Amino acid sequence: MRLFIAINIDSSLRDSLAALQVRLRQAEAPVRWVKPDHLHFTLKFLGPVPEARLAALREALRSSLAGVTSFPLSLERLGTFPPKGRPRVVWVGVGAGAGEMAGIRERIDTTLLPLGFPREGRPFQPHLTLGRVKEAGRVDRLLEELRTVPIGEIRRMQVPSVELMHSQLHPAGAVHTVIDAVPLVGAT
Fold first, then answer.
1. Tell me: the pLDDT tens digits for 113-129?
2. Residues designated catalytic
3. Is the pTM higher than 0.70?
4. Residue 7 belongs to some domain of the structure
5. Is residue 49 part of a domain?
6. Structural domain count, the chain
């Protein structure tokens, strides 16, 4: 099973981001846009995990999130990875909630390390991937749009849970399924 740990977004935020993608598509850049129902914040990519390890993984995830309180999350800015040179990823960054997400990521990393899941080598930058640039060239209009889009129009959400996700790759695209949802304290 190909697994990752994520925060899924609520429907009103999903709708706002889908509208943002429509606006960015007008730049006609060679970008493969993430389907709105696949938009999420990845906290940790686990990769292929044998089904026999699933119970221990679920228990460790629940343990790592014990006592973590639900928190507000807002989107603050648009950008690309890498920040200079030819962009490969178009993203929206987290404003409120970034510290909480980083803390959750650290707890998950610490708890899963003994199970054989190494820490990520790069610093954690909370973001949501909107699209992936397919080829070089024709991105100038997109970069200009990214600088001028009024990001303040995007809604906030309250984070109710963290999910263990299964990603199945298919020719038509990935299918993401929630394996386990760990509710945060105070979530409604």
1. 999 999 988 899 999 99
2. 40, 127
3. yes
4. yes
5. yes
6. 1
